[in-house]
Write a structure and sequence with these properties.
Length: 394
């Protein structure tokens, strides 16, 4: 789809979408939810000139590192809960806690903690909460994770509910790389809903197929080396016990099999999440997304105009500041929602319609409702509705 990128950004901003900042992306990816595989974007397939040029002409603060390749717009916060047994994850958690206990016993933990503290001095801290100064109207949701739970025998064999905050709406924008003679100028726009923050990678463009992580390969090799060394040492003993050798080999093979099957389970989960993102969570793409956003903008501006006119009609003359405050109070009282009402834009439209004017001291006032209808005249919606009614009666 070919579209002027600055126009698309303006439409998204008007629809209350915001560019996800570097801090928000870090917070989102600091946790782990259902996706347990590292997802990498194939940067060779993504154009790096469009967004780089745009942000050089329209600087934005705190952009993420990938802003020259693709950009993520987000709107709203929600909650996603999943109830399952998570047996393998719980086993991994128990092993991790046993490993931490061994580190404490051997006092290696102090050495590792010292290195971590040195690293934290160089790197900013990543919290599990979005900075409230970035968006004071967002909903803050607690992350409920397995690693923060007290695991018992009962919990090990019973269902557990975990919770993750979601981005209520996400739009991903990028352009594919192409050779210069036949450069593809189409901009890809994909619209998603209810994406868990920790699983944000599932909406990234041009993903590579995940494979075994370096840590998995380390586990394989370390297990094989330890097993072979132990078996070789046992064979060198005068009275080698075949049952001991068999037990060692079984343990090594079992651990390698467990690592492999864990990867296979994670791969199946990844494929399921990708399928969900394509069929359940993807709302639209390309032209459909922009049309949907334009419709959102129109509806929002109409509602702003109606609310502003209603306040002036019911409560009389008001300054711009008073009108802004009254509109926000009305929305809070009637709908229980706090918002930053765009009164300037609404009043400007009302003045263009000539149904709102200013008095000598700068206060705004409106004409009567009947007179306002006469001034506005027949709207497009009324003409369409009348035509539909005529076709039905015919």
């Amino acid at each position: 789809m070919v579209v002027e990128f600055p126009f698309g950004v303006q439409v998204m901003e008007k629809s209350n979408f915001k560019i996800a900042t570097d801090e928000e992306i870090d917070v989102a990816l600091a946790g782990q939810y259902l996706l347990n595989l590292p997802i990498i974007v194939d940067e060779s397939k993504i154009d790096k000139t469009l967004l780089k040029r745009y942000f050089s002409e329209h600087p934005q603060p705190n952009l993420p590192d990938f802003a020259d390749k693709y950009i993520i717009f987000r709107r709203g916060i929600g909650i996603d809960r999943t109830a399952d047994y998570f047996f393998m994850e719980k086993v991994d958690m128990i092993i991790a806690r046993l490993w931490a206990f061994l580190l404490r016993l051997t006092r290696l933990e102090k050495l590792l903690n010292r290195r971590l503290r040195e690293r934290h001095k160089k790197e900013p801290k990543k919290d599990d909460e979005i900075n409230p100064e970035a968006d004071s109207e967002d909903l803050f949701v607690e992350r409920i994770r397995l690693e923060n739970m007290d695991l018992s025998i009962k919990k090990l064999v019973s269902k557990t509910t975990i919770q993750e905050p979601t981005f209520d709406r996400i739009i991903v924008v990028y352009r594919r790389a192409s050779p210069k003679p036949n450069m593809d100028r189409g901009i890809y726009v994909k619209h998603f809903k209810n994406i868990p923050m920790a699983d944000l990678e599932i909406v990234l463009p041009e993903k590579k197929n995940p494979g075994l992580t370096p840590m998995d390969w380390v586990k394989f090799l370390a297990s094989a080396v330890v097993g072979l060394v132990t078996v070789f040492s046992s064979l060198q003993m005068p009275t080698a016990d075949l049952w001991v050798i068999f037990a060692i080999l079984s343990t090594v093979i079992g651990y390698c099999a467990k690592t492999y099957f864990t990867f296979e389970a994670n791969m199946a989960t990844y494929q399921n999440l990708i399928t969900q993102s394509m069929y359940d969570k993807q709302l639209d793409s390309g032209r459909g997304t922009l049309l949907h956003l334009c419709d959102d903008v129109i509806q929002q501006e109409v509602k702003e105009v109606i609310i502003s006119f209603f306040i002036l009609m019911e409560q009389g003359k008001a300054t711009m500041e008073d009108l802004d405050l009254r509109c926000e109070e009305l929305i809070k009282e009637e709908f229980g929602e706090s918002c930053n009402f765009d009164v300037d834009d609404a009043v400007e439209k009302l003045e263009k319609l000539k149904i709102v004017s200013r008095d000598s001291i700068g206060r705004f006032y409106c004409v009567g409702l009947k007179r306002a209808n006469e001034i506005i005249g027949v709207t497009t919606e009324e003409l369409v509705l009348k035509a539909r009614q005529g076709s039905i009666s015919a």
